[in-house]
Amino acid sequence: MIYMADTADLEELRKLYSFFPLEGVTTNPTILLHSGYKLSVAIEGIQELVGTGMVHVQMISGESDDMVREAKKYRSYFDFGDNFYAKIPVTANGYRAMRILKDAGINVTATAIFTQQQALVAMKAGADFVAPYVSRLDNISSHGIEVVGDIVENIALYGLNGKVLAASFKTVDQIYRVSMAGAHSATIGPELLHQLIKHPMTDIGVKQFEIDAEGLYDIEF
Length: 221
Ligand code: E4P
Prior knowledge:
It is found in: Cytoplasm. InterPro entries: Aldolase_TIM, TAL/FSA, Transaldolase_AS, TSA/FSA_arc/bac. Keywords: Cytoplasm, Schiff base. It comes from Aquipluma nitroreducens. By secondary structure, the protein is α/β, with parallel strands linked by helices. The protein has a single domain (2-213), classed as TIM Barrel, CATH 3.20.20.70. Helices cover 52% and strands 17% of the residues. It has helices spanning 10-19, 29-35, 39-50, 64-77, 92-103, 116-124, 134-138, 144-158, 172-180, 190-196, 200-213, and strands at 2-6, 24-26, 54-58, 84-89, 107-113, 129-132, 163-166, 185-188. The longest helix has 15 residues, at 144-158. Residues 6, 26, 28, 30, 111, 131, 133, 135-136, 167-168, 187 line the site of erythose-4-phosphate. Erythose-4-phosphate (E4P) binds at residues 6, 26, 28, 30, 111, 131, 133, 135-136, 167-168, 187.
């Protein structure tokens, strides 16, 4: 499982990167808006923090050629190498842009996915990652985990190169269930990343070890 942080909050990212084995960051216009940073400051800050990790940035144009122009501009403006992924929504124009970007050697993450077919078509169009929105599906009485599981199965069935980037989480349980459904990666907001590694029994156990260690150690560490 590849873990990525779904945030542009640079302070939070710095904290998370200090201990969590993250392999990238994803953003969208809403996330960037909430970060409070101007676009260039946010992306530059993220780029610095991730090092050689992945940076997935969403294109906001509606037309294919504009999306392609946007992606190329990001690559040159921020001097991104292969760790840049252009997030492209799965619209008709988006699918066209994916094909052009792949031909130009630019990585693609297909986003705003709500069905297995949208993901399958995106991978046929060359998407490296496909991002189904789990919570948004669950919230409309659909089944986010099932969609993730179906896409995972399709990848194996057809021997596709794409990976599932499960997205849009509101609970730790959803993350547990996409992991068990075989999602290759998940992008998770800071609050849930912190909660994910928490267990009260761990805290109690560690506390007891500390108490038992008092006065026991006669070696300086
Ligand atoms: C990530 O790529 C998605 O844009 C994001 O996870 C959507 O999350 P939301 O449904 O919480 O807005």
